[in-house]
Amino acid sequence: MSTISTELVEPESGLPAGEPGPVGIAARSPLQLFWRRLRKDWLALTALGIVLLIILTAIFAPVIVDLAGTAAPRTQNADLTGDFGEPLGPNAQASSPSADGTVAQAGPFGSDKLGRDVFSRTVYGSRISLLVAFIATAITVLVGVTLGLLAGYYRGWIDTLLTRVMDLMLAFPVLVLAIGIGVACSGAEGCLGGAIQPGLTVVIFVISLSTWPYMARIVRGQVLSLREKEFVEASRSLGASDRRIIFKEILPNLVAPIIVYSTVLIPQNILFEAALAFLGIGIDPSDPSWGAMISDAASIFREAWWYMTFPGIALLVTVLAFNLVGDGLQDALNPRTAK
Amino acid sequence: MAHGDPLIEVRDLVKHFPITKGLIRAKQVGAVQAVDGVSFDIREGETLGLVGESGCGKSTTARLLTRLLDPTSGTIEFRGKDIASLSRKELKPFRRDMQMIFQDPYSSLNPRKTVGSIISEPFIIHEPSVGEKDRKCRVQELMEQVGLNPEHYNRLPHEFSGGQRQRIGVARAIALKPKLIVADEPVSALDVSIQAQILNLLRDLQRELGLTIVFIAHDLSVVRHMCDRIAVMYLGRVVELAGADELYNHPRHPYTGALLSAVPVPDPRLAKAKVRQVLTGDVPSPTNPPSACRFHTRCPKVVMGKCDVDDPALDPKEGGNLAACHFPLSDREVATQVPTAAA
Ligand SMILES: Nc1ncnc2c1ncn2[C@@H]1O[C@H](COP(=O)(O)OP(=O)(O)OP(=O)(O)O)[C@@H](O)[C@H]1O
Ligand SMILES: [Mg+2]
Q1: Residue A82's closest CA among A118, A121, A120, A115?
Q2: Which domain holds residue A197?
Q3: Which residue from B103, B107, B121 is facing A229, i.e. has the nearest CB?
């Protein structure tokens, strides 16, 4: 137990145990302890700053685009393509004046094949990325934690059933499944009786469907070991109900692993969304999604490097920042890790 | 201490853990006979020791008494009412009268709950009408009673040492003023210097609250000064049951004799003079225990043809000990072999 911070443990003595500790290390809430640890992790803090910045970008995308003076993300401007329909580079001038006599200028990130502004689309792309990732992660957590808890706590047939379903899901070739569902649900009336509409809901559905078993498996494993702990027995011997044991004894011990795994899931889901968009699943081609932009840019990368580079950097930075925050949270949430 | 009527009467208590095979349709292929026909009384106000080697079924007995496990068969009468087959709901009123103190002070406290909320739990479950302020007050009184600083109400378990944690466990156990406390090796995870403090605390609380205690230990040296009577278990059975002094001075079961041979005694000359009985071989598996007397495979006094076919009952022997043995130790054998025997 070398990891328990010695300052907090008072020596056992013959005196009434636990005289007040030295001033300044009085009782700290778990949150305070967590914050104290996180505060020292500059890498995680920087990443957290970037994550907040990205979230703000997503929220204030219209304002940012307005301030930058670039065109709206779906606006196609034929003047912003070259004579042969090639995109214009960053800040490049159109080769010939437009109909009104002015010379059109591309935005700071250039334009795409249809003359849409890459800067605007990259900024708006954060909306789709985060929206899909957050909602899919929330669904995964909800479904995974609920089913994992039930399976791990009650065991028996419910556990057998759920484990088999999870095994089956994990054995599925996810991309094939995704393409299948994407095609099946992208018709005008959607699928599952209209619950899954074409567009973002298909993407969210596919992502949640293929990630919940991981979450459920992690939670189930934790619950299986937690339910045998003596503090659960103590609660049971006091006559606590299953509900009380699940919510007051087991769930609080799952918060840390759930948060940690969610922070791993978010960047994974961002990549997942990009991959699906790259494959053209679910998302409408006019929607600004980083994955779709990269896919679109792949064929003309040699002529228009900017078209792939800027959404690519946005994707990379976002995923990296979320991953670093995840690592930082993991370290700070575990009360026994050394400082 | 005056000990009254039985608080709990245990009769023919059995717990077999099934061993199953097969993934989809589990088939039972055997059973761990963890507790196999145990009978004893726990008298009001006494401390009953339960000792035996690892795996002999002490913890299982404890968990059966507090009904954390369902017995395979047998009865447990709590003041005349059989609680062995009560449902979870019917048990609830009995729960407040029977509490457990656990061996591991690290895993017995939820690491995510503050000390205050850990000790509050008994009140929340059994006296939900008590307001939060009253509850806090009572919890802090309890903390004081077990030697903790009430100002540490909001601290987490990891901020305490092992001994302090065990005090938290004790506070939780006595919160509802139970009749019976089952302490499963409450000090074996602690430093020797701290063990005595916890034992003293338990004894003080017993006197103050009139507790009846079942005290489990795996060696006989700890229980001597704690217990009024001691039950010795071997492979799921009680092989000897006697008052603490009787058991130490004149054990009747050869297994008890062998356990006492290993107890350190203060007078080395006395110890040297004895022919220590060292147990040979391992404890047989509880999955497939020896026939009849379960100790016959390791017993120095075994008589084949008797001990392996005829199961001895737990009967009174010379000096008042109850022992399950056909050939109990005589006074002469005790005097030469047992270091704790009265000179
Ligand atoms: N839940 C269980 N499932 C299967 N077997 C069990 C279970 N609990 C206990 N056992 C077995 O029952 C036997 C008795 O175990 P028990 O924990 O009661 O022993 P003990 O006397 O408390 O030992 P120790 O001194 O090591 O704590 C052991 O062989 C153990 O492996
Ligand atoms: Mg045990």
Answers
A1: A115
A2: 118-337
A3: B107
8 Å CB contact of A335 and B111? yes
Best residue in A3, A12, A258 for a mutation probing chain B (most B CBs within 10 Å)? A12
| Letter string b/e over residues A260-272, b meaning 16 or more CB atoms within 10 A of that residue's CB | bbbbbbbbbbbbb
With an 8 Å Cβ cutoff, is B125 touching chain A?
A: yes
Q: What would the pLDDT profile of A71-86 be if each residue is shown by its tens digit? A: 788 778 777 777 777 7
Distance CA A108, CA A306 (A): 10
Chain A contact for B79 (CB, 8 A cutoff)? no
Structure tokens at B230: 């001691």
β-pair partners for B274? none
B134-191 pLDDT, tens digit per residue, is: 999 999 999 999 999 999 999 999 889 999 999 999 999 999 999 999 999 999 989 8
Tell me which residue of B185, B182, B251, B255 sits closest to B218, measured CA to CA: B185
Place of tokens 């005589």: B330
Candidates A12, A18, A30; nearest CB to B152: A18
Chain A CB contacts of B95 below 8 Å: 237-239
Q: How far is B168 from B115, CA to CA, in rounded Å?
A: 7
Contact A283, A198 (CB under 8 A): no
- Count the domains in chain A: 1
Residue A321 lies in a domain: yes
Altogether, the residues listed in chain A come to a count of 339
Q: Does B58 sit in the ligand 1 pocket, CB within 6 Å?
A: yes
pLDDT at A337 exceeding the cut of 70: no
Residue B98, class by beta-carbon neighbours within 10 Å (0-12 exposed, 13-18 middle, 19+ buried)? Answer: buried
In the sheet with B81-82, reading across from the earlier edge strand, the strands are B27-43, B6-21, B73-78, B81-82
Pick from B174, B181, B169: nearest CA to B48: B181
The CATH number of whichever domain residue A302 belongs to comes to 1.10.3720.10
**B56 Cβ inside 6 Å of ligand 1:** yes
Taking the centre of ligand 2 as the mean of its atom positions, its distance from the CA of residue B278, in whole angstroms, is 23
Beta bridge partners of B13: B38
Out of B92, B98, B148, the one facing A18 most closely (by C-beta) is B148
ipTM: 0.89
Where exactly are the structural domains of chain B?
A: 252-343
Structural domain contains residue A137:
yes
pLDDT digits (tens, 9 = 90+) for A23-43: 344 455 667 777 888 888 889
CA distances from B284 to A133, A291, B171 (A): 57, 65, 38
Q: How far apart are CA B216 and CA B227, in angstroms?
A: 10
- Mapping DSSP to helix (H, G, I), strand (E, B) and coil, where does residue A37 land? helix
Instruction: Establish, for the pair of chains A and B, how many residue pairs have beta carbons separated by less than 8 Å.
Output: 108
CA distance B119 to A73: 59
- Is A54 inside any structural domain? no
- Does B269 contact chain A (CB < 8 Å)? no
Domain assignment present for residue A15? The answer is no
Ligand 1, atom 2: nearest CA belongs to which residue?
B17
CB of B204 less than 8 A from some CB of A: no
Q: Do B107 and A230 touch (CB under 8 A)?
A: yes
